[in-house]
Amino acid sequence: MERTERKYVNRGEEDELELWGFLPSTCKLLLVFLGVLCSGGFLLLLLFWLPEWSLRLTCREVPLSQARFLLLRTTDEFGTWFRVRVLTLLTPGSNPLGHPRKEDLASKLMQDMKSEIRYFRHQNVRYLWSPKEQNFTQLCALEKGTHLSDIFNQHSEGLSSATQEYRKLFYGANQIEVKVPSVVKLLVKEVLNPFYIFQIFSVILWSLNDYYYYASVILFMSVVSVCTSLFTIRKQFILLHDMVAAHNVVRCTVHRGHNETEEIFSTDLVPGDVIVIPASGMVMPCDAALLSGTCIVNESMLTGESVPVMKTQLPHPSCNATETPYQEDMYDVEQHKRHTLFCGTQVIQTRFYIGESIRAVVIRTGFNTTKGQLVNSILFPKPTDFRLYRDAIRFLLCLVGVAGIGMLYSIINSVQHGELVSEIILDALDIVTIAVPPALPAAMTAGIVYAQNRLKKKGIYSISPQRINVCGQLNLVCFDKTGTLTEDGLDLWGMLRVEDRRFGTLEHQVIMEVQPWSHFIVGMATCHSLTKIDGKLSGDPLDLKMFEATSWILEEPSAEETALHDQIMPTVVRPSQSMPLEMQLNPDEDPDMKMIMNQYEVGIVAQFPFSSVLQRMSVVTKTLGEKRMHAYLKGAPETVAKLCKEDSIPENYLEVLDSYTQQGLRVIALAHRKLEQKFTWHKLQNINRDLIECNMEFLGLIMMQNKLKPQSVPVLEQLRRACIRTVMVTGDSMLTAVSVARECGMIPPSGRVIVTKALPPHDGQPATINWIYNDDTSHPEDINIMTEQDELIKKRKLKDLEAAEHSPAEPSYHFAMNGKTFSVILDHFPDLLPKLLLCGTVYARMAPDQKTQLVEALQKVDYYVGMCGDGANDCGALKRAHAGISLSELEASVASPFTSKTPDISCVPDLIREGRAALVTSFCVFKFMALYSIIQYLTVLLLYSILSNMGDRQYLFIDLAIIMTAVFTMSLNPAWTELVRQRPPSSLISTQLLLSVVIQILLCMGFQVWVFLLVKTQQWYSIWQPGMNVCRENISEDMWAWNTTLHNTTEEEEEHNVKNFENTTLFFISCCQYLTVALTFSKGKPFRQPIYTNYLFLGCIVVMYTFILFLLLYPITALEEFFELVCVPFEWRITMLFIIAANLALALLLESCLCNSGQLWLRLVYSEKREDIRVAAPYPQLELDEVSASYGRRFCCWRKGNTPKAKYKRLAQELMLDPDWPPRPKSSTKAPPPLSASTLPQGWPPETTNL
C-alpha cells in the first residue's frame, strides 16, 4: 500500500499531533465482520480498545483531502492514538473572520453560494481544512496574526447581526460546556474496560464450573466496584460542570455599529464582537482586549494571585508626536495581558469617560479562552509516564505466558485421562483466571488511596492521585523564590538617590524634609498600579510598601465625579500634610493656581502597566498648577538603565547595584522624564509606551527586603541530606537569586558561582557564551545586613565553612543564568545544555514559558522533577513536572497536580515521603498478588495431575478472607518519619525485586511439591473414597457414625473430585503460604513505618493464622464439610504444622538476608548520624552522588567503567573525565557554524576561547 505523506497539526507545540487519513473499505469491513462473528465479539472489543487497528483493519489510507476518518497520534513519549470523524459545514464563505457574501442568509441565491468546510473536533478544539496548505489547521481567532491597527480599525465598531451569525457557524456557541455523561454511557464505558471484561469472562467460566458461590460473590464485588467508580466519576464531572457553568451564560451588551447596541446572551458572542463592560463590573464570559477605559480585575481563578490587577486599554498604533511612524506590533495574549480581560475573571471596578462606555473586543471564545484551556487540561490530562505501570503490564504478560504453559499441561493431562472435551476446555481456561489475578488493579490502587487520605490530613490535596507514586522517585525539585522560599510581603530596606551622577547617603526611610516634592519621592508615590476597593488600598505588595513609605494619600474619583468631565478623572496623590507655599515654588508652576488651591497634588494621567516581558512599568503625571507633564519609570535596574541617558547614571552604578543584590535585596530602579508640550492628554491615551519610556533621567535605587520563610532552610537541608537536588527558578534578578541561594543553602559557602551569559547571533557572528566567575562568596558576617535572620542559617554556614576548610577536595561549581541566556543555549548550544543542567543551580529572570522549558529539559536527562511554586506564573511548569505543588489555595491550583494549604515548602518532604511509602506499598502489593496467583496456580496444577480441583468455598475463603483482607490492610503502613537518602526502585524489573519474587516462588513451589509427594508416602494413604476415614481411631464411635452419614449424603456432590488427601494437605499449606508472603513482603523502614505499627494488618494475619491452625489441629466436622476437607491422622497434622513453620521461617530468612538490603541500609544510616556530609564535590549532581556513594557501591561502579542507566548520571560520569570542564574564567564559547546535515560531524564541539 502506498504510504501518504506525514502531516502534523500544532507543529512544534506541546499538543502536536501526527495525522493519517482513511476511507472505509468494503472488503475490509466484510472481513472484520466475519472475524467478529468467529471470535464471538472479541475482535470488536479489541478494535474498540485499539483505535489504530480499528481504522487500519476497516479502512484504506488516503490523502487527507479525501479522508472521512482521521487517525491521530501524539508525538510525545506516550504516543497516544485517537480516531476522529471528518465533518462538513456549509457556510456562506470560507474565512472564519470574514463576512457573509450576502446579508440575506436565507435567500435562494445564498443556498447556491455556500462553501463546504471540512473540519474535525479533538478534545474540544476545532481544526479546519486548508486547501492551500493541504492540511488541517487549528481554528484561531484574533489571538494570532492580528495587528493592533486591525483591532482598532476593523474590530472596534462591532459586528452586524449577519456577520455574528456567520462567525458563529465556525466558532460555535461561546460556552465552556462540560457535559455530564449519562449513567448508561458511563456504565458502558466502564464495563468495556479490559479489567471488567476479564471479570465477566471469569464469572461466566466459574459458573460453568459450578463455582456458584464464588462467582456470585465476585460478581457482587464487581458490581459494587463499578457503581463506586461511576459515582466518583460522575461526581467529579458534576463538580467541574457546576464550577464552569456558574458563569457560562450571562447577558451582555454588544455594539452593532457606531451608536447601535444590542443585549444578547454571552453564548452568542463571537470573535470580533465589541462588548460593553458595565460600571458595576461583570464576570468575563470570554477573552477580550480593552479598547477604552480602565478595569480593576480579580484574576485569582487563573493566576492564583489574590491581588486585583489593573487593566488598561490597548496601545493605539498611531503615529508619535513627531508624526514618525513606528514598527507596528502584533497582538499577543502574553505580551498584552495587562490589556486583556480573561474569561472567568471578575471585573470589580471600571473607570470610564463621559458619554462613552468601556468597550472590549472579543478575542477568543469557548474552549479557546484561557479558562477553556484550563478546563481542557482537567478533562484531558496528560498521561503519567512511570516505569512501574509499564513494568506491571509486562509482568502481567509474563503471567499470561505462565498461564499458557499451565493450559497446555492441563490439556495434555486431561486428554491422557480421557476427560470430556467440554471439561478440558473449562479446566484450561480456568488456569488463565487463576494465573492472572483479576483484582490486581483494585489492589494496587489501595495504597494510593490511603496515601491520598494521609496527605489530606496534612493539608495536601491532589487532583491526580496516580502521581503520588511518581513523587516517591523525585530526585530534583525546582523552587520559585518569591512567595515560596521567601515571604510574600516585601519590606522597604533602603533608598539611594542620585544627585549629579553620584549616589547619595543610604536612607532607610523617606525623609520628607529634604525635598518633599523631589522626583524621587513623586516617583515612589505615583509609579504604581494601586487602587481603592471598598475604601482600602489594594494592589501589588511591592507597590503597596513603596507607596506607604512615602506617607502620601491616594484619592480616586467616583463615578459621579467622572461623569461631570469630558475626560476621565485621574487618580490623585498628595502628601498627607500641607507644605508651606515657599517650599512649593517651581519655575513651571502657575502661582495663581497654587494660591487658589494651596496644596500640592499629582494626578496620574496615563499608566503603562508592569509587564514581565518588559520588566518595567511607567506612568505619566501632571502636577497641579504645572503646564507640562512628567513620566516616571520603575523596573529592573538593568532594564531601566538602558532607557536612561548615560550622563544621568553614576559611574559606580554597577558596583553599587551588585553590592546590594549580592545581599539578597530586591533592587528597583526609578527614572524620570519631563515631557515636551506636544504630549497632550488625548495623545497619551493612544500612544505607544516606547515613545514615553526613553531618554529618562536616572533617579536612584530602592532596595526591598524579601525574608526567607522560617521553614525554607531546614527543608532544603533535609532534601540535601536525602540526596535530592534543589534548583531555584525565579523571575527576580540574577545576583539577588544567587544571594538567596547561598543564604538558604542551595549553594554552599565554599561553592563558586559561574555566571553564564549568552548572546544570540548578530551581525554574522555566531551565538556566544561568556563564563564569568562570581568570586565574591558571602561569609557569616555578611548576614548581619539581613535583619532578624534565623539562627539556623548562621549555624549551618559556620559548620559548612569549617567542613570546607578541612576538606582537601576542590570547591563545587554552581552555574547561574537568566532566562535570555537559557533560551539562547536551548536554541544554539544543544550539546552544552545537558552539562549546564547538571551544574545549574540558579535560573533568574525566567519567564513562565521558560520555566516550563527548563522542567522539560531536566526530564529529558532522566530527572524526576518536582516543581514548587505559588501558582502565579508557575502553572505551566507545575503541570509539566512529574509532581507540581502549588502553595496557592485559590482556583488556579486546579492546574497543579498537588495543592498545599500550608504556604511554605514543608509540604515537599511530606509529599516525597508519602510518595515513597505509596510506591513501596505498590511494589509489595504487586509482589503479593503475583505470588498469590502463582501459589494458587501451582496448587491447581498439582491437583489437575490427579484429576482433582479446589472447591468452590475453598476459592471463596482464600480470595475473600485471606487475599482481600491482606491486600487492603497491608497498604495501611504510614510513611517513615525521616526522608532518607535511599530511593525506592522505580521498576519491577529490578534485581532486588525479581530476586525476591523468584526466591519466594521457588520456595512455595518446593514446599507444595514436597508435601504433595510426601502425603502419598504415608502408611495410611490411599486414594480417598467417600465414606473412608483414616483418623477413626482418634475420634469416638458416635462421631464416626455422624461423619459416615455426612460423607454418604455428599457422595453425589463429588463430581469435581474435590475431597481427597492431596486437596486437604495443599489447602492448609497454601493458605499459610498466602499469609507468609503477605508478612514477608510487608516492608517497613526506611520508607514505611514498621509492620508492628499496622495493628489492623497484624490483627488480620493473627486471626487468619489462628483460624487455619485451629482447623488443622482441632477439626470440626461441620467446618471440614463446609470447606470440603477430609479427615487426616493427627500425626500428619503435626507434620503439616512443622512444614508451615519451616516455610514461614525460610521465607522471612531468605527475604531478609538475600533480597532485602534494608538491615544493612539501616545500620549505615541510623547507627551513626552522618551530618558531616561532604560539601566539596566539583558539581551539584556529583556532590549528591558522592554523598550516596560514601556508603554504597554506586561511585565505585563509575570508577570501574560501568555505565549508569540514567542520562544525568552518565553525563556526570563524563564531566568527571572532562579536563575542559568547568570552563576557564573569563573565557567564551561560540556556537558551531550552521552546517548541513550531510556535512555536520558527529559530536561537533563548541569552540571555547579566552576573552
Automatic annotation (TrEMBL):
Q: Where is the P-type ATPase A domain?
A: 252-378
Please give the InterPro entries that the UniProt record associates with this protein: ATPase_P-typ_cation-transptr_N, ATPase_P-typ_cyto_dom_N, ATPase_P-typ_P_site, ATPase_P-typ_TM_dom_sf, ATPase_P-typ_transduc_dom_A_sf, ATPase_P-type_domA, HAD-like_sf, HAD_sf
Q: Which gene encodes it?
A: LOC114648901
Q: Offer one Pfam family short name for this entry.
A: P5-ATPase
Q: Which residues form the Cation-transporting P-type ATPase N-terminal domain?
A: 154-206
This chain belongs to which protein, by name?
Polyamine-transporting ATPase 13A3
Where does this protein have coiled-coil stretches?
A: none
The annotated region (Disordered) lies at 1217-1251
GO MF: ABC-type putrescine transporter activity; ATP binding; ATP hydrolysis activity; ATPase-coupled monoatomic cation transmembrane transporter activity; metal ion binding; P-type ion transporter activity
Transmembrane segments annotated in the record for this chain: 29-50, 214-233, 392-412, 923-947, 953-972, 993-1015, 1094-1114, 1134-1154
One GO CC annotation: recycling endosome membrane
| Organism for this UniProt entry | Erpetoichthys calabaricus
What function does the entry list? ATP-driven pump involved in endocytosis-dependent polyamine transport. Uses ATP as an energy source to transfer polyamine precursor putrescine from the endosomal compartment to the cytosol.
Q: How does it sit in the membrane?
A: Multi-pass membrane protein
Q: Locate the P5B-type ATPase N-terminal domain: which residues?
A: 13-130
